From TrEMBL, chains A, B, C, D:
Belongs to the chorismate synthase family. It catalyses: 5-O-(1-carboxyvinyl)-3-phosphoshikimate = chorismate + phosphate. The lineage of its organism: Bacteria, Pseudomonadati, Bacteroidota, Flavobacteriia, Flavobacteriales. One of its GO terms (biological process) is aromatic amino acid family biosynthetic process. SUPFAM superfamilies: Chorismate synthase, AroC. Its cofactor is FMNH2. CDD domains: Chorismate_synthase. This reaction introduces a second double bond into the aromatic ring system. This is Chorismate synthase.
């Protein structure tokens, strides 16, 4: 109810603030008998963690996950999987300057008004640090899904946009550059741009595209819990996300039905895929693809006029180590959330027929 | 779990197929003591129903809601509100031609594969007829929310787009034309365009913009159940929706942080509102605004190549009375879903502090 | 949340007051492809309905269920099953005398204090009439469970107790007498006793025993959602229930571990069954059995001192047609609730292993 | 869904096995602004922990809870409260003898059949060690409830029963003896009896009575989530519980309505309290009282015939340090679960009226 759980059958609940002792979570409902590859989980964590390249924040978090339960001799037991990630780099002193100041476009003001109290250190619960827990759970969900392949990449940084359709892209290029844009030339331009933005003490937004392949037909539920509605919610729950579109998306609104309709082949596949792999809220076996919009990071290295908790004028200025552009590190988070949605519907679908 | 419920505290569960005896639902968790204005509920129903103007489907459904429980002497009692809407215009014979045919970009194929059985008459459960139940519940939610004002309107039809910001718009113009576009000139063009599209036997998509005003600060929950994430899910659960963006949305991705950040006034309001009234997933008191993308209606009045349930080639052709463009009738549905989200968070927020 | 839903996967939500237009419900999550036997559903309804024998209330309710959705050509479609039962015998005038009076040991006082408003006619939502909806859903759940056999019977009326263990009982005797006690002699005594109690204008309590046979191993979840915990909640949710015990129950508290432990046979079955078919919250394949305690009906045909809604002294006296003893009609309700619990865990168990 | 969560608004999710690295949990939905008294939480933990007296298990667990989030400067922030309790005394070697053996009346067999894998060390997840997490959450719930007073005590051990009504009891006597029976003489007899049972290598059951005082009117929900139904489920979810009754309970079944009905005083209180403080599922302001039946502990210090996982005959014999009677240590667990139920309904009730 209070917003810290995601999923119905495969359910993740997370806890933890940016600068508390630890963050962590519980994955409840993971089926028994899954052999976990801990190496892969760690790889996902490394993709998200700060300090991995020169264009992301230089904070140093080990982001080492410690599993406390639900796993026995390398396999899931069907019991809840509890885990913690210690906050090793929490320099609380860095944040005394924002104790009473509401940073523009952050959650400081709304948390204070809603709860009457907030842990101001590093943004507390509203910090994107929380997404590390999503990546842990997503990495397990991915292993549960086996053949289903979930791939995300950066499709734009500011106005620099990769115009290619996902089907023209070689996914193995994604991790070859720090931007995670699967086009070497564009990636290089984006990287330069992010660096120049950082020099200005500013930040910039971007988009992440995600593709889900080898999806079994029948995932998703009618009416309110349509597959794309849950994917949308999952993506919009990620910090800094402002929009979501799947299949033809906003561009589909200017098409005619005669152009937009996906004509069937005799095997049930479709000639085009404006539907984005989902019809009536349920997967049809075609590739699912969607795009997620991220706003520019709110913390900038410049002085901004603002107010304090008493309504007096104040100044805010980012200190320390922040991301000039969030999308490169958002890629594994988008994948993780997609995996959580798919795992949940995959399990739920086992109950849909006699 | 099976996707027919929406909301946590103020919870709507719906049932019913397009051509069964009736559709209906249960609203559970509506607080006791709310005096209901049935006239207003009926007005909302009339805004959604077929046959209201020359540019929408000419099907004739009375769409008269019958309340069966939870209301006593005009007030809610805190008990579940059961209601039914009879299907008076269900001409099942109209649909025998699609019994074994999968219509392109409809849910026929996915329902059949997922469930092994489907009520093919009029699309069964996947028909947008189900949204009438959402409008009933939304009309009650609106009354619960009192001062919060929820207004939606058509912001584009195909490539015809109302470029004005919502703040420049006179909302009282919305219902003055059948398109529900609050600009007489643009509305007239859109109307002509929809008529020409219909003549071609084709359909077209569009967008609906929604604005929520007088929102108390503090609605929404952190992390997974952010206010905009639930709004996004709510909108994406409406038939034919392909995308959702709030505040600066996709356009915000090309902005810099120094432009995008909303600077506070001393009273806690903000000078700009790229945040769309939500920061960290929680309402900040500014106007909430978002845009919803609708694809062109899949049923077109032209022959389309398709397959039947045995994988043989077949033909599909829309018969009867269908909407050439869904957005005018989608306006009250968007408002209804927004009201359900707001009512739910409004009630939940009562539990957030000691 | 507001207490009108039961179950997680196979989920029943009910609505309706005793004297409104109708009661009804929605069953969401029933798997597709189940051929329904409507005759059997009707039989269950007849077992619960008033007026079926001389020892129960002589109210006349047809209790005819009308299914509105989720069923196509006799089979479930996986869509929500909406249903209504009209209130044909609601004589509202009968209840004007209790409009402002709080009947002792009824819900009048607590509803008024909690909600500030109540539908006083016939007890409104707190009336046991609501259980008719449970019987509808339970009858479908029973059909879903196929081989699992759920049998309840009256094991005591007041101090008259059937001392036999369930294993000594011929279940086919249960429906042969109006008390539903499967021992002709004891049933006859109970019947006479109930009649004498009724003559006194009084009421009496009793117990119902329920046995669930042919249970697959593995139903139930660890920790909070133990199979017996959900069965207990289900039973305690029935009007007038004051206690629940399963397996050895309260009698087991005076036993020693060496007597109480159920020793395994080599096939995994157990020599004794003090565990009542459940170990660690999960079914072990042995018979599940439990007992449910019902208090005497609160409505008696005698004058009782009480208060009105203003705190003034008043008198309450049952009028019309009430049950002198609730247990005979409770038998099908106990079975229905047991079926709902079992169906829910049966479906959930499909997700417990890879 | 998988049974590791309890509560709707004030929600506890737990994880952890008896012999893993740690157990722990997340409390989600605790309102912001509650000043926590950590001393009191620790006191509750000490009441439950092993080794506290000569009549309970002599295992040594520190049971020191470490809070990781959701608390800032001593107050709850409205964010999820994550906590861990390390397993300091897990001697895994002690359990190799039960690796392949199914102990009678334990969960070994059912877990193995349901999940195909189990952590056999110390009973794994089915161990009562998990209840330490409930006590943590219950101690916080108690603080939230402020004036509501929850008191449990041992009312019987085997056939030794404290016949007094709770109203005749001096609650301050409860903690003065290791049995937690608030009658010095009876407590002494019970203690001797437990010691003699232990000498025999055997175990014995008992009952715990719980009283909830100063309850606001209006807690609980109609129909399925009646206050007593949730209390019943809460109690039945505790390891070794076989039965639950509230108010008049099973004894109420032999009463007549004219005796059982609770007559109102003019202030709305009642002259008698057979209803146990709950009418129609909702608290009426009178004391809530209920009794919980615990079976004898399954682990006995004697050889028992049993089978192994291959269906071969085997022997089981308790080793190490086990409770000869569970009820003294169950007292704080019963209170904790009662507190969780009350806190949940207390918060939910804030949404029941306009």
């Amino acid at each position: 109810m209070a917003g810290n759980s995601f999923g119905k059958i495969f359910k993740l609940t997370t806890f933890g603030e940016s600068h508390g002792a630890a963050i962590g979570g519980i994955i409840d409902g993971c089926p028994a008998g899954l052999s976990l590859d801990f190496e892969t989980i760690n790889t996902e964590m490394q993709r998200r963690k700060p300090g991995q390249s020169s264009i992301v924040t230089q904070r140093k978090e080990e982001d080492k996950v410690k599993f406390l339960s639900g796993i026995f001799e390398g396999k899931t037991t069907g019991m809840p999987i509890g885990f913690v990630i210690e906050n090793t780099d929490h320099k609380s002193q860095d944040y005394s300057h924002i104790k009473d100041v509401y940073r523009p476009s952050h959650a400081d003001y709304t948390y204070d008004k809603k709860y009457g109290i907030r842990d101001y250190r590093g943004g507390g619960r509203s910090s994107a640090r929380e997404t590390a827990c999503r990546v842990v759970a997503g990495a397990i969900a991915k292993q549960l899904l086996q053949n289903i392949k979930i791939t995300a990449y950066v499709s734009s940084v500011g106005e620099m946009e990769l115009k290619k359709n996902y089907s023209e892209i070689n996914f193995s290029e994604i991790e070859k550059n720090p931007v995670r844009c699967p086009d070497a030339e564009m990636a290089s331009k984006m990287e330069d741009y992010i660096k120049s933005i950082r020099k200005e003490g500013d930040t910039v937004g971007g988009t992440v595209t995600c593709v889900i392949q080898n999806v079994p037909i029948g995932l998703g539920e009618p009416v309110f819990d349509k597959l794309h509605a849950e994917l949308g919610k999952a993506m919009l729950s990620i910090n800094a996300v402002k929009g979501f579109e799947y299949g033809s998306g906003f561009a589909g609104t200017v098409m005619k039905g005669s152009e937009h309709n996906d004509i069937f082949n005799e095997d049930g596949s479709t000639k085009s895929n404006h539907s984005g792999g989902i019809q009536g809220g349920i997967s049809n076996g075609e590739d699912i693809y969607f795009k997620v919009a991220f706003k520019p990071v709110a913390t900038i290295m410049r002085k901004q006029e603002t107010i304090d908790s008493k309504g007096n004028k104040a100044e805010a200025e980012g200190k320390g180590r922040h991301d000039p552009c969030v999308v490169p590190r958002a890629v594994p988070i988008v994948e993780a959330m997609a995996a959580l949605v798919m795992a949940d519907f995959y399990l739920l679908n086992k109950t849909s027929r006699l």
